[in-house]
Specification:
Elements: E1 2-3, H1 18-26, E2 36-39, E3 42-45, H2 60-70, H3 72-77, E4 81-84, E5 101-105, E6 121-128, H4 132-146, E7 150-155, E8 160-168, E9 173-180, E10 185-189, E11 195-199
Parallel strand pairs: 6-7
Antiparallel strand pairs: 1-3, 2-3, 4-5, 5-6, 7-8, 8-9, 10-11
């Protein structure tokens, strides 16, 4: 579901910038924490439901997968990073997604006055059930255009993890992709060229 809300005098939809989006929150036009994110300059409702379920609900498998992501934080701390769960990353001029997970350089206190940007994020993770097509298309293009080094989709529909690397910002796509299964491992990029090896099975519910 997309919320279209601004129009110019010609009646055309005018995309929001990240700055305008923040101003709407600051002035109470939008409530912070509402289940929306800014994609391509439009407010899009976040879909956390299971396939066929009420889109306002959170799927059980999804909830477990999110909990699995939180377990990475202590390991990432030793490598100069931390994981943010369902919090914004700022990708001006027109995107501020809230990925299910983001591996971010530095201590959380670094971001007291701003959200992490493209140069702070080494990997983004989306947990996909009914949102799978959006995550494969819109989200993938946005993250590749920003130059995020790695994008993972925890695919609950097929019980796999899709790994996308080598972003091509001009083309808006990742040049390399792989489908990983329970017996495989993922190497999360961390700070200073370090990596964290994680079993795929530890990310799946």
């Amino acid at each position: 579901m997309t919320v279209q809300y601004l129009a110019d005098n010609g009646g055309r939809i005018v995309p929001l910038t990240v700055k305008q989006y923040h101003q709407m929150i600051q002035h109470g036009i939008l409530r912070e924490g509402e289940p929306y994110e800014l994609l391509d300059g439009l407010l899009v409702r976040k879909d956390r439901s299971a396939v066929g379920a009420d889109p306002r609900t959170v799927g059980f498998n999804r909830a477990v997968a999110i909990s699995n992501l939180t377990r990475l934080d202590r390991k990432l701390e030793r490598l100069g990073c931390h994981i943010r769960i369902q919090l914004p990353i700022s990708l001006p001029p027109a995107d501020e997604p809230e990925p299910d997970g983001a591996v971010v350089a530095g201590d959380p206190s670094v971001y007291l006055s701003r959200h992490p940007g493209k140069d702070d994020v080494t990997c983004v993770i989306e947990v996909a059930d009914s949102s799978l097509q959006q995550d494969r298309n819109t989200k993938s293009r946005i993250y590749a255009s920003a130059g995020i080094p790695m994008y993972l989709i925890v695919n609950l529909v097929e019980a796999t993890v899709e790994q996308y690397t080598q972003p091509s910002p001009k083309m808006g796509r990742f040049e390399q992709s792989a489908v990983l299964r329970r017996g495989d491992k993922i190497e999360f990029p961390a700070a200073g060229g370090k990596v964290l090896k994680v079993a795929v099975r530890s990310l799946l519910p």
